[in-house]
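QA checklist item 7 of 12: single-chain prediction sanity check.
[x] sequence parsed
[x] length recorded as 121
[x] structure emitted
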Amino acid sequence: MFDLTKLACVLTGDAQVEVVVSDEGPRVDAHRLVVPSCDDEDLLVAYVDLLAARVAHGDAQAFGDVSAPVERKLAQIIDDRRACERLLATYPGARRYIERWRGRRLPTWHADGTISRGATS
């Protein structure tokens, strides 16, 4: 089993971060990453990757004033996508887990501006 807290500390660059498994997850509470309980270790790691990406690269203030629930959810999805891409640029090994969480392969943006898409899994 992975040490989820150690993983979160590395990914966020914050030694104070801890991971808590609870049915109230996934969410970020200050220095706590709350992941949902499940028996799938890869999925737990994927949730840590996602929440660590939010902490390290997310911009919650960019949609903090959005009050409509649907618009807020869409803003969170867009921000998660951007944050995960930044996390993957630094930690490419996280791709396996994020893909597991998303249930399909993520497109890859190349320096020349092209996009390659993997096959769906």
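[x] summary fact logged: The longest strand covers residues 18-21.
[ ] second reviewer sign-off
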